[in-house]
Each structure stands twice: as C-alpha cells, then as structure tokens.
Amino acid sequence: MSAECWEPGPGGHPGASGAGPCPPGTASAPWSLPHWRACLAAAVLCYINLLNYMNWFIVAGLLLDIQNFFQISDSNAGLLQTVFICSLLLSAPVFGYLGDRHGRKATLSVGILLWSGAGLSSSFISPQHSWLFFLSRGVVGIGSASYSTIAPTILGDLFVRDQRTRVLAIFYIFIPVGSGLGYVLGSAVLQLTGNWHWAFRVMPCLEAVALILLMALVPDPPRGAAEKQEEVAMGDLRSSWCEDVRYLGRNWSFVWSTLGVTAIAFVTGALGFWAPKFLFEARVVHGLQLPCLQDLCNNQDSLIFGILTVVTGIIGVVLGAEASRRYKKVNPRAESFICAYSLLLAAPCLYLALILAPVTLLASYVFLALGELLLSCNWAVVADILLSVVVPRCRGTAEALQITVGHILGDAGSPYLTGLISSTLRAGRPDSYLQSFLSLQQSFLCCTFVIALAGGCFLLTALRLERDQARARQPGTGTPGTPGSKDMESRALLSGTGAAAKDP
C-alpha cells in the first residue's frame, strides 16, 4: 500500500498544518492488490457483517424471555431497539468523518471491541438493574455504527463496476442472513442451555476471531483506488465536513435514495423486532400454542422466522443484484427501478400477511416470506446507487449520513412506536389474548403504507440517477466550495446520458 501524505490546502497551497502536497512519485504511484487478496478481504468483511447483524436481532429472538426476566412491557421493550438504533445513528457521523480522513482498519477494530464487550457484559446483569441492559444495547449500537459506515467504502475501493455489484450483493446477503441467524442462535442456545444469557456469551468468541482476521487480512486501500482515481482522491483539495454535507444535500439521487432507505428501515425495524412475537401470539389464537407466562418460553417462532429471513434474504439479495446487473445493460436507471418495483410489490404482500394471520397461518407465512424476499432485493442495489453517485472521498460521510437519517427517521422509532400503539389499543379493550394479538396486528398496518412510500422515493431517484452518476465519474469533480468544481459539474451535466451509457 502506498504511503499517505498531506494534501494541499485551499487554492492549491499547503494546508494549515504546514504540510505540502504529496511528492510526485507518491501521488501518481498506482495502488494495486492481487485479485485473490481482494476477494479474501471481502470474505472477512462479509463474516464480520454476519456477526454485526446477528447482534442487531439476537434480542428480538429472545424478546419474550427478556421481557419476563426484566418485567418489561411491550412499549418499553420497543425501547431496547430504539436505544440501540439511536446510539448507532448518533455515532455514525463521527465514524463517517473518521473513515474519510483516518485509518479505517483501526476504527473498525475499535467498533468490534465495543460491541463485543458490551454484549458479553449484558449477560451478567441482574433483573433489578434492567436500565443497565438498555445501556449495554446502546454501546453495542455505537460499535455497530463503525462497521456499517466504513466497511462498504472499503469494498468500494477494492472492486469496481460489475465486480463491485456482485461483491456488494454477497456482502449485503449477510444482512438478512445475519438477522435470521440472530433469531436462530438465540432460540437454539436457549433450548440447549435453558438460559437466554448464554446467547450473549457465545457471540464474543466469534467476534474475537473476526478481529484477528480483520487485522491480518483486510487492507486499507486509498480512497477511489479501484476506479484508478488515485490522482483525484489524493490530488483534489480536501474539503471540510460541512462542504461534504452540502455537496451530498445537492445530490438528488443520494437524497431520494436515502429517503427510500429510511422508509425501508422503518418497516424492517418494526417487522424484525415484533414479528416473532406476532407469530407466537397468532399460534396461541389458533390454539396451537399455550400463552407464555413463565421465564422459559417456546421460541419455535423465532427459529422459524429466522430461517425464513435467511432463505428469503439470500434469494432476494442475489435476485435483486442480478436483475440490476442485467437490466442495467438496457436501462442505465435500472438500480432505482428495481428498488421501486420490488417495494411496491412488497406492500400488498405484507398487508395480506397481517390480515390473514387470524384466519390461516399458512397463507400468512407465505405472504410474509414473499414480502421479506422483495424487501431483500434492495440491500445491495441501494449500496451500489450510493457508491455510483458519490465521489470516492465523500463515501464514508455519505454512508454515515444515510445511516443516520435512515435510522433516526426509520427503525430508531418504529419498534417503540409499534409497541406503543399496541399497548394503547390494548388498554381500551377487554383483557384477553385475542385482543392482545389484534392490537399488535393493527399496529403493524402502517408499515404497508410506508413501504409504498419507499417505492415512490426510488421512482424519484430514477429522475436524476444518470446525471449524478456522470458527475461523480468526472475527474476533478469536487465538493461545493472547491475551485473548479462548478466547471466540472457543468461538463458532467452536459455529458449526461451519454456518459452513463458508456459504463458497462
């Protein structure tokens, strides 16, 4: 890897630090990595992404037992995920700033240590100190923020074009796979040990292996290395964080796709947290399961939902990425259309899954699986949109902003809001298990309208996608306030569709 050096300050003169531009030999030296090394690094990052999302949803898989252990109501149980997400979104901009300007491997290592240590310590909290369990989930969220923000930018610098689309598809497969295995791990460990705490003691062992693999096998490439933009990434002027944010705020493809991701996050947050309990209560209503009134509950539904999430996630991510890759050959706006169509189809599937649950469980499971599959089609495609419309040196900040907005308006509040609506509806009804189930069912219905809204956001993304992709590919394109950026932006806009069509 080539040595890093300070970049010139505004106007092409040395920055405030007194350091001058890179020596000619360093600035122009190409950075390369054998393909097998890049693939090995991608495999390690995928493994860590798997563990990251297992941590996200392991609580949801054990929710009934955790509620009984700490005596937590539905409305307060939703706060567990809200605390986690709020911590993640508040720390994501910090990690995005660090990821664009400092060593990314060191930042990722700190994040893994944070979420691993917090998860382990949460397994030793007594029922009298439930607030400590909430606090530990917040620390896990801070650690997860570092990985969710920075890891995709490393992959974006190791691969390009079709290769990047395929690698991102594999990377984002581990969102639904990790989420599903979080449910499966929690359910399996509980059945083997009879104690839900052990699920939080198994994870740190896997995370220790991940940390060693990260340090040994994952490089930290220069920003834009895979796109052969070393001169752009290292020779452009370093803009401030505020200038980066202004640039992203004027990038309409980024803005609309971020709003679409926010709506997706709202739905997946509520669905991922409450679906196992919803399915459990549906089986109670059908007389297939006794209510859970003791510490050890039957977690069969968490196991089923976890397996369902893994299978539909793998199929959905591969299907979405491959459809995008093929469709892009005839339509340069393929990514945004794939996201829009899949979301507009997912909305009625989720609606039918909720409505049919009291009538027939089989049909409810079928439509739930279809809805999850269609939602999973978006994971790799939305990441590819971001990487294609944002200049390399701003990608960490872009990832951080998308995560922050997506979580603060999406899944930071949706689990709590769903639980709060359920508790409010239940308070005005007779005290029965059927009414408890119906309250949770009706609190879910708003998710169907939010999914349709997400589809509309990606249709709006399609209107500006080609233009923003062309602008991001122009050599020397800068952020607002950078000399020459206006000229290059005008040239990019003039090139428009033609430049986009040349990209295979």
From TrEMBL:
Residues 475-484 have a biased composition (Low complexity). It is a multi-pass membrane protein. Residues 471-504 are annotated as: Disordered. Keywords: Membrane, Transmembrane, Transmembrane helix, Transport. GO terms for molecular function: transmembrane transporter activity. It comes from the Eukaryota. Its main location: membrane. Residues 41-466 form the Major facilitator superfamily (MFS) profile domain. The keyword Transmembrane helix applies. It holds the Pfam family MFS_1. It is found in: Membrane. GO terms for cellular component: membrane. The chain crosses the membrane at residues 38-59, 79-99, 106-125, 131-155, 167-186, 198-218, 254-275, 303-321, 342-367, 373-391, 403-422, 442-463. Coiled coil: none annotated. The keyword Transport applies. Belongs to the major facilitator superfamily. Spinster (TC 2.A.1.49) family. This is Protein spinster homolog 3.
